[in-house]
Amino acid sequence: xxxxxxxxxxxxxxxxxxxxxxxxxxxxxxxxxxxxxxxxxxxxxxxxxxxxxxxxxxxxxxxxxxxxxxxxxxxxxxxxxxxxxxxxxxxxxxxxxxxxxxxxxxxxxxxxxxxxxxxxxxxxxxxxxxxxxxxxxxxxxxxxxxxxxxxxxxxxxxxxxxxxxxxxxxxxxxxxxxxxxxxxxxxxxxxxxxxxxx
Length: 198
What we know:
The chain is an alpha/beta fold. Helix content is about 35%, strand content about 30%. The protein has two domains: about 1-35; about 40-195, ABC-type transport auxiliary lipoprotein component (Rossmann fold, 3-Layer(aba) Sandwich).
């Protein structure tokens, strides 16, 4: 009888200790394990002006082996600017504003648009491409006219299969269909670079 009571008491004590540990551990579980995204920008920055991206691709340069996959699409810089503004609207951390009223100014220039072949068929047709959009970007404090950060050769990309792809179930695309995906990737990366510190 005595051992039964002691077993019962130990179980009850054990349950209380587990409950106490669970209660003590709960705040740490709620706070997470230390992986977080937090705004890299100061609380004083609420708005941003995205300047029109400038096209700096030199289409007059003679092609060589190293640049034979460089291409150009008219008004690409305009599409990038629109996509970056829309991404800021979607993200919500910084609100797009006019240049005069904005806290921050993002300046950018398109320096390269490249299509790199990744995979070939047995008959030497390109089966998979990667589109690369390369930009130089800088973020400026508009109030103090001071550079916050700058990125050279910042890249967004998109990989897609062509009509020569023989893999079953793979969706194929044309360059025209893949370009908006590459622009979206670039815009997402630019906004993440602006507002997140990993």
